[in-house]
User: What shape does this take?
Amino acid sequence: MAKKPTLRQCIGCNQPMEKKDLIRIIRNPEGVIELDATGKKNGRGAYICATQECLKKAMKSKGLDRSFKMAVPKEIYQQLSKELSELETK
Assistant: This one.
């Protein structure tokens, strides 16, 4: 029997997608929020499409705030935006 793909929901567009197609953002035990390209880092995770559009939607709908149960500063969104644009150009 074939293994079902692992689905996760994007916090920007709310579309369920395969885990491997999304980028994981984590809040580690120290409270630091960062991109997790490996998908293996320790911490509370949220998933997002690798597009600036979904990040803007997540910022507008406060998707990260809800996922991490805390207010996420604008600087974090700016840092994530910069890291996402670097990933898009690869």
Notes: The mean pLDDT is 89. The longest helix spans residues 74-89.
